[in-house]
């Protein structure tokens, strides 16, 4: 009887550890997928309108003193509307013509814009780092994406 209880205790301990490890792995993979999909989606949402910007109207700044430097870009679209993309806290926002900001994504650790001009061509480098906490707030998963957008106008 004592041996049976010891064997059941050992099996329960092993199964508990296997369950715990499986749950932690699932949470880490879910966070990694969320971060990768979020980065891809955010870059896509910035890329298309930015390609259609009027090159001479692009300005890079920050939304507030609490946000990272170069984390806001303002430009005039070919349709005449003033577009703005910016980081505020851990979220990415978008606004048109100075209207209220619409949230495009979250878990944004750093958003950075930089312009590069060479001859007649202008391009904007976008750096986006997303970070999400995983199991028990102890570990994090990160995704750094960099994209160069050529201004077509």
Account of the protein in words:
This protein is α+β, with helices and mostly antiparallel strands and 153 residues long. The chain has 1 helix and 8 strands; from the N terminus they run H-E-E-E-E-E-E-E-E. The chain has a 5-stranded antiparallel sheet with strand order 1-2-3-4-5, covered by helices on one side. The N and C termini lie far apart (83 Å). The model has no long low-confidence stretch (mean pLDDT 87).
What percent of residues adopt helix (DSSP H or I)? 25-40%
When the domains are counted, the total is 1
Class based on secondary structure composition and strand pairing: alpha+beta
* SS element count, helices: 1
In this structure, how is the largest beta sheet organized? 5 strands, antiparallel
Strand order of the largest sheet: 1-2-3-4-5
Beta content? 35-45%
| Rounded radius of gyration (Å) | 23 Å
Uncertain stretches of 5 or more adjacent residues: none
Outline the fold blueprint:
Blueprint: H1 2-51, E1 59-61, E2 72-76, E3 82-88, E4 91-96, E5 102-106, E6 108-118, E7 121-133, E8 140-151
Antiparallel strand pairs: 1-2, 2-3, 3-4, 4-5, 6-7, 7-8
Quick summary:
With 153 residues, the protein is of the alpha+beta class. It is 33% helix and 41% strand.
Keyword list:
153 residues, alpha+beta, 3-stranded antiparallel β-sheet
């Amino acid at each position: 009887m004592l041996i049976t209880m010891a064997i059941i205790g050992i099996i329960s301990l092993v199964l508990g550890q296997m369950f715990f490890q499986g749950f932690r792995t699932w949470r880490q993979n879910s966070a990694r997928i969320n971060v990768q999909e979020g980065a891809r989606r955010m870059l896509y949402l910035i890329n298309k309108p930015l390609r259609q910007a009027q090159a001479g109207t692009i300005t890079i700044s920050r939304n507030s003193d609490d946000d990272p430097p170069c984390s806001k870009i303002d430009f005039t679209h070919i349709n005449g509307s003033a577009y703005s993309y910016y980081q505020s806290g851990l979220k990415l926002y978008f606004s048109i013509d100075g209207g209220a900001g619409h949230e495009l994504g979250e878990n944004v650790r750093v958003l950075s814009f930089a312009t590069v001009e060479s001859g007649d061509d202008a391009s904007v480098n976008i750096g986006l780092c997303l970070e999400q906490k995983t199991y028990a707030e102890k570990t994090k998963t990160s995704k750094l994406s960099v994209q160069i957008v050529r201004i077509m106008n």
